[in-house]
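Q: Now give one record:
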Amino acid sequence: MILLLQRVSRADVSIAGNTIAQIGRGILALVGFERGDRQSELQRMGKRLLNYRLFSDANGKMNLSIQDVQGELLLVPQFTLAADTSQGNRPGFSYAAAPDDGLRLFQIFTDQIQQNYAKTECGEFGADMQIGLINDGPVTFWLQSAKAHRT
């Protein structure tokens, strides 16, 4: 599982010109699933997401989580995060979860996050989405679970 976290001033998701989700100050999390990802990884990565310290404290140090600042969270599925870009000029997707698995994992993950953090919005799995954001900082972090299944 891969999470690309971006601290944002605002972010939104549109499909066919219609805004389906939007947030103010918070985190835009692009979410990718790899072949072999398990529910235990979703739980661990969900805890990391909600507790990861991306926001500055009174001393200017990144010591505060989204929960600490009561920010908003936007989860957007993005299978291209699991691309193999190690060679050539075209990405391979053999590491990405199959579409049915990716949909199931995204639903489980978003349900889990929304149960633990009410200020959560979501993109739509499998849709052609347009993402607008203002990256604050910029601050961007890549979180990845173990890659044991990449063999």
Q: What stands out?
A: The chain has a mean pLDDT of 95. The longest helix spans residues 99-116. Residues 2-143 form a domain with the D-tyrosyl-trna(Tyr) Deacylase; Chain: A; fold (CATH 3.50.80.10). The CA atoms of residues 14 and 20 lie 6 Å apart.
